[in-house]
Design brief:
Bound molecules: iron/sulfur cluster
Shape: globular
Distance between the termini: 46 Å
Number of helices: 9
Helix content: 25-40%
Length: about 250
Amino acid sequence: MFNNLKILYHQGKQYIPDVTKAKVPGIFRGRPIITKVQVDEEKLVNICPTGAITRSPIFIDLGCCTFCGECAIAFPDKIRFTTDYKIATNDRNALIIQQGQDVPVELNPKLIRKEIQDRFNGSLKLRQVSAGGDNSCELELNACSNVNFDMGRFGIEFVASPRHADGIVITGPITENMAEPLQICYDATPDPKIIILAGVDAISGGIFADSPALNRKFLKNHKIDLYVPGNPIHPLTFINGLLELIRKR
Ligand code: SF4
């Protein structure tokens, strides 16, 4: 008994008491800040492996960014990544960070369907579809349910069957081979169902965006309820994005 108490004392709390205010280590790359310092824009744009940076003025599209950090390493006076992990949104345009912008990425309440807040606040079951994913975002989604992040305390859980789910979470760039299984899974999920894109590959195709092996037609035909940037995503980005999506307003 005494030994157990000693272990508990040394280990501290195993869960994050408040996932909305948790701090992450300084090496984490979250929302970037782009200063107005003049740089060689062509050189900066060409550094980016995914074309996430546009010029005149400089923008970074978090839906395309792999958070490799190369731009910030080469141009530290121009680009700095903060540890702000609350970068999930339901507005694709909100993922585009402008020069001089230093405000949080937020959800647009007008784009949230009413039935989402009415039905899923307090209980949301999700089916995950790895559509050509590399298992990185999938691992982080698993971590959301571990004792540390404990997403289940909010009633948010992954389920084995789309029949039991309220929505689907897509990871990976959606390969041709996974296009039909993804559609089948979506069709098997009861209405009203939500669609979440987790990770840069799902949002834009990432480094595979121009690959002929992809078939992303599914995304053209359906409204996306939440974009969760990251490569891979951080569990705190995913959980905070979901909490904002389903909370009663
Ligand atoms: S961190 Fe993002 S914007 Fe910068 S070079 Fe990498 S992918 Fe491009």
